[in-house]
Amino acid sequence: MNQDYIKADPWSIIEEGFDKEQVKSSESLFSLGNGAMGQRANFEEQYSGATFQGSYIAGVYYPDKTRVGWWKNGYPEYFAKVLNAPNWIGIDVFVNAEPLDLNTCTSVSNFRRELNMKEGWYKRSFNATMPNNVKVGVEVIRFLSIDLDEIGAIQYNLQVLNADAEVILLPYLDSGITNEDSNWDDKFWNTTKIVSEGERAFIQSHTMKTNFAVCTFMQTEVFVNGNKAQIKPTLKKDEQSVGNSYIIEVKKNQQLSLIKYGGYTVDRNHPKDQLQAVANLVLDEASENRFEGLLKKQKDSWAKIWEMSDIAIEGDVKAQQGIRFNIFHLNQTYLGKDSRLNIGPKGFTGEKYGGSTYWDTEAYCLPFYMATKNQEVAWSLLEYRYNHLEKAIENAHKLGFINGAALYPMVTMNGEECHNEWEITFEEIHRNGAISFAIYNYHRFTGDYSYIPKMGLEVLIGVARFWQQRFNFSEDKQQYVMLGVTGPNEYENNVNNNWYTNYLAKWCIDYTLEQLKVVKSKYPKDYNRIVDKTSLASAETENWAKVANNIYFPYSEKHEIFLQQDGFLDKILIRVKDLDKSQRPINQKWSWDRILRSPYIKQADVLQGFYFFEDHFGRDVLEKHFDFYEPFTVHESSLSPCVHSIQAAKLGRMEQAYKFYLRTSRLDLDDYNKEVEEGLHITSMAGTWMSIVEGFGGMRVLNDELHFTPQIPEQWESYTFKINFRNQIITVKVSKKEASFEITGEKALMIKVNDKPVELIPRKAVQA
Amino acid sequence: MNQDYIKADPWSIIEEGFDKEQVKSSESLFSLGNGAMGQRANFEEQYSGATFQGSYIAGVYYPDKTRVGWWKNGYPEYFAKVLNAPNWIGIDVFVNAEPLDLNTCTSVSNFRRELNMKEGWYKRSFNATMPNNVKVGVEVIRFLSIDLDEIGAIQYNLQVLNADAEVILLPYLDSGITNEDSNWDDKFWNTTKIVSEGERAFIQSHTMKTNFAVCTFMQTEVFVNGNKAQIKPTLKKDEQSVGNSYIIEVKKNQQLSLIKYGGYTVDRNHPKDQLQAVANLVLDEASENRFEGLLKKQKDSWAKIWEMSDIAIEGDVKAQQGIRFNIFHLNQTYLGKDSRLNIGPKGFTGEKYGGSTYWDTEAYCLPFYMATKNQEVAWSLLEYRYNHLEKAIENAHKLGFINGAALYPMVTMNGEECHNEWEITFEEIHRNGAISFAIYNYHRFTGDYSYIPKMGLEVLIGVARFWQQRFNFSEDKQQYVMLGVTGPNEYENNVNNNWYTNYLAKWCIDYTLEQLKVVKSKYPKDYNRIVDKTSLASAETENWAKVANNIYFPYSEKHEIFLQQDGFLDKILIRVKDLDKSQRPINQKWSWDRILRSPYIKQADVLQGFYFFEDHFGRDVLEKHFDFYEPFTVHESSLSPCVHSIQAAKLGRMEQAYKFYLRTSRLDLDDYNKEVEEGLHITSMAGTWMSIVEGFGGMRVLNDELHFTPQIPEQWESYTFKINFRNQIITVKVSKKEASFEITGEKALMIKVNDKPVELIPRKAVQA
Q1: pTM given for the model
Q2: Per-residue pLDDT reduced to its tens digit, B476-495
Q3: CATH code at B211?
Q4: What is the set of active-site residues of A?
């Protein structure tokens, strides 16, 4: 954990001073994205020190052959990788023929990075003395346009501070890149065509195997003291790269500026043979706007995003910075414009975890997007899974399930399973339930039922079929049991009767049976279409009910708790606080078998069930389970603290809730796990948002009604957030003294605050 | 299964007719070994068809970097591979400049292979028409000397059948070889020096990383019609190979013979700088003996081996061939001359399973070597583990165990763990118990206690310490439980309270406590030395006893059986015979999770415990367990049928016992599992021997007394085997009518036959 490295600031991420050891971490933290592409904060000019180069295009992946020890039936053939894409940001700089490289400069001063989250741009500035004793001052601003999401812009300003000099600026495109996270050192890209047209250039390339065609493009211009320089660049071109080399004689302190527009057009969005033509149109539009115009639009776009999604915290700048960093990166990663896309655990900030979609999306991200965007965005996330239903059925079939049973993959890019540890791929099947739960959650929150008859019911049926087949009747127990699963707590593998999975599975079946009735009576046409398509017979649903009504749940009479799984009480139940600190984190200090035999919980498991189904249990039951399980929880998953923060708040333990909040919100900024250089933990960022809104704010939807039980951490003066509840925007401000609520729109809205009804009249703040 | 491919013959393995599809399988079946080196039955002349080239040197391995999906703490860095060694058998043949290559010949007739097990040689002969229409007749005899175990000899006879011709014979050495089973395409060998001296040649090379220095050598001579040809060969040499090229003008039907001696000298056995000098001495000795002399010695050596280890079966040639094939390969693999060596699952017949030592050695191979060799051989096998004790302690320490607890590796070459599936490496810990059991078994059979005070007790202590730490007290059960293990049935992973492991662990502790008492009273000096060395205190052994006396064993009151593990009865208990045949073998047809959830048993698990500890349970208890578990056993491990054969025989179910016997004895010959081309199943071959001696013969040692309960399969007229029982050789012949027993030596011996005492007087056959 490094708490001094990033300066506290309410709206910006700021690094001051050049530390080569931090370059890779900063490349992650200052990453840019616009939902369609993204990139790590790599330097434009060459850098010979330790760096992790990364540019990514949403939806463009490579099916890297999986690498496992011993093959097992049902393993996927490949592990989809988010690909390092051709580099368009590069600008080589030479002063008096010496390359500018911060790793070789004899001194670097005033080095500063700022990621301005409010306006959506990234600035880097420094003074440096080069090995040839030339001193330069550099300031670079870069952003990826939210509006024109195929383009980004760079303004690279340079002054020679101690002499007149010959400067060469060489902006380039390069498709000769590699992936760090490659299993077999395969070549992932093939370059087919390189074109230069004046100050524009284009590289046509395609991915191997998946054959995504991408045109990487740029346009460059040079200005001296603000005036366009009349220099014709020299073309530099080889088999994988193309550059415009500008040779400029500059006077001491003259301001040299290079404007570079660049980006990608992709055949996911345009006809393959039009990619260069479209790129030209995009560049035309960027040129018309000019850098300043694009930047102005960028600020406007981010203002709109913040207008709805910001959470303002008074009195705690680190907490403020943390939540905005989380909200900013969530919006950089996914904007909901394209239902073929989803939210990768590392977003556009790194390669790790390959593939884009985990159960994180349904379990953690959906609530954020439902509450801070228009309904269409959440719909897109649900539709993504609907579109993968056939693949999920195939996947289940590979594992021996029949009759349209669906098992969604643990990790995917295109609906196929990409993960290959048997204990996860084959057994961590609770993910399937999160997908049904998201359908329920969408309806609960938005009030929009239409997704279910249109698409959702088919998903529910596939999932229910899977669960019914996955349970088996135990003659011994005379109940249905579920053997050989891995729950959300991945520090247990291949256990029997994981309570969370059993409970969720039962709920999925019950919920599906209910929705079948609703759709049958209210949407008979859809009902008939779906029953026909899925060949669903009443004998089958009766069988579902038979299973769901007689499921075994491990329970301890002595402790009055549901057991995480069979045999949990056989473990040595030493609490985490009684463990020697030198033993933590256990995933780095202990062998895997020791972890498996221990009672230690990586992330909420039974408690995840209590989070999803809070209304099924009384407060005292929650308290008993929280008090039993949290002491054994090591929170070594980024997804763990948020759920515990919400539940601690629910139990009125605000100090504990606040501790969990800080851990989740500043996980990457403070680098708790010493791994931020690999990229950011994007999906858990949505958990941070939940910690405030559902945790401190106590927001729930019960029986179509919005509830709040506002509380505030000691350390804060106030916090404010907005919720889009069924197309009305509610602003909630909680201070130590009171909570106030205000809605937009035309209709009044009844909400409940601390279980008391409160009527909200549009544009009238109500204190409660 | 291919039952017609190998001709039935009591003493030889015979293949007739050339089938390119069978080349790789035959390369396995006709493999040669002499305990110190071995080789697949690759052709001497070049072959462009599908082939799996393999030459192996005992104890020479390569630590190939492991390849896993996701790393886990405690995983080994490398996976030791038995290396494909430099090739010394190669003889290129050209007739009128055309290479002889059976893959390109226009016709091949009279192709025949014979592996003469009685005499220890391998012969291949054929007639072939080459693409240039030259017809040749070839006969090759090859063997690896048992006496001079650094050398082998080849006599390559060739006639041109339809014309005079120019023949080139080019015997060579080649160190430019690769391993099929390489994780990272690393280069495994480095060639440092190539020397040619007249008709001798030497390649000095060493393995990468492990740096084993090997001198591969040869000497060649050519004869025409039996007379040494006065031809000086031309030297052919490149960076990795060296050859002697003989150009001979032969007349039609003239007999051309090439004698080639070749082999390895290794710095495991000689000073590194003496390897070529030693090779020269070895070649001198071979030359003096000449081919015929060496072959004569070979026949004598094998006669001696068979004298003691043969099992003769009358009336069933396939059963006869099967058991001899098994005994032959066991002796080719391990002769007990070198306690640094052990018995790899594939011996010298393939690369699969890398590493040389599994628990197979102690559980399956030891009884064979104890009974058919001098005691020193079994001692060597035990000493091997004693020499690895420090490494086993380190291995346990890596996993979090302390205070000298020892965990022997699942797979090893040098004492370090080489296997890297967590569910096996970390959890299949019952292997540790097999090592203690072998110590007991050695004493039980040989009557020699001296190993225990000298070496064994330290091993027993390390293992007992491991078990005591591996159990944990369950507050819930108020007993000690063992969580997270994999039993011998690898179709279950990470289960709790595997009965076999719990029982074996308890036995290990109890046995160690007893031996501590014995050594204390009878070998006080050793006792003091060991207690001192291991810092063993009485508080510790009291703690062992406390654990061992209160261990939980899963048991079903309803079925009156011990349960394989917790929760076994929750499975869907459909018997194997009621499974659709299309679903078998399940390891090829089912996904891994389906296998894990099923009740199907790969190899004896609870029943393995009943095999080891038969005398702890009554016959009726065995029967109950056999009847419960065998119907769920798919026998998809080569180690499964033998134990079941022994137990079926014990229960008087001879028909079933015979079926199991056939399955184990002809597993490779009939290629039950369609994988013989990868190599043979060496360790399970010892199980075949047990099936006859312990199964049909009913041999047991109880209270220092040898017992037999002879039975005979319907299909046989008689069978005869010998047992070295405490340095007296007992010949047992069982026919349908009677059993007869005869001993060598000077002393009379009391044995029991069908529980009745029988006195054996030397050299007097007794019928009983």
Answers
A1: 0.93
A2: 999 999 999 999 999 999 99
A3: 2.70.98.40
A4: 490
